[in-house]
């Protein structure tokens, strides 16, 4: 935080063509918030994206609108996958990504799938850590009473790139008191 009003790392991105057909770079620009105004920095942060074999036909993650926070992820299923009511499936995206240290990728449900079809993510948001290099997949769950079909290329989730703070724990004899105290789990009511 600076004296002028604070600092954050809000992210935007663009896809740049790499020298290898299998590797794409996603450029994330850090931004600074000063007196309520966000200014995008020219200093990029790079996310490497590797397409897994047989997924070259699928789009890379991308924002659907100018100010969207999340990039849509696409299903890399070989055949249509039917999620029965109450069923959960691990759906591949056909990608591996390298998130830079100091950031994470949050995998979140798409609101339209949740509202209109009852399709959500069980571990929402899912976290992709900076040191994970395995295939990116999404845990989809059908909470509706109707089957839902996932086809190749369907937009199944969104990925938000966010800064991460590493904490250090300090053992103390007791915690300071607050006006809230131990209140939790709906202690403030609903109205």
Task: Describe the model.
- This protein has 191 residues and is mainly beta.
- The protein has a domain of 109 residues: Deoxyuridine 5'-Triphosphate Nucleotidohydrolase, Chain A, CATH 2.70.40.10.
Mean of residue pLDDT values: 83
Quaternary structure annotation: single chain
Rg over CA atoms, rounded to whole Å, is 20 Å
* Total number of beta strands: 12
CATH architecture of the domain at 55-163: Distorted Sandwich
**Strand order of the main beta sheet, please?**
1-2-3-6-10-8
Helix/strand structural class: mainly beta
Strand content is 35-45%
The largest sheet is: 6 strands, antiparallel
CATH class category label of the domain at 55-163:
Mainly Beta
Distance between the termini: 35 Å
User: What is the third-level CATH name, the topology of the domain at 55-163?
Assistant: Deoxyuridine 5'-Triphosphate Nucleotidohydrolase, Chain A
| Poorly predicted spans | 1-23, 29-34
* Form type: globular
Helix-strand layout with pairing:
Blueprint: E1 12-17, E2 23-34, E3 37-51, E4 71-74, E5 81-83, E6 88-98, E7 103-108, H1 111-117, E8 119-121, E9 126-128, E10 136-142, E11 148-150, E12 155-163
Antiparallel strand pairs: 1-2, 2-3, 3-6, 4-12, 5-11, 6-10, 7-9, 7-12, 8-10
Short note summarizing the structure:
By secondary structure, the chain is mainly β. It has one helix and twelve strands; from the N terminus they run βββββββαβββββ.
Question: Could you list some keywords that capture this structure?
Answer:
6-stranded antiparallel beta sheet; 191 residues; mainly beta; single chain; Deoxyuridine 5'-Triphosphate Nucleotidohydrolase, Chain A
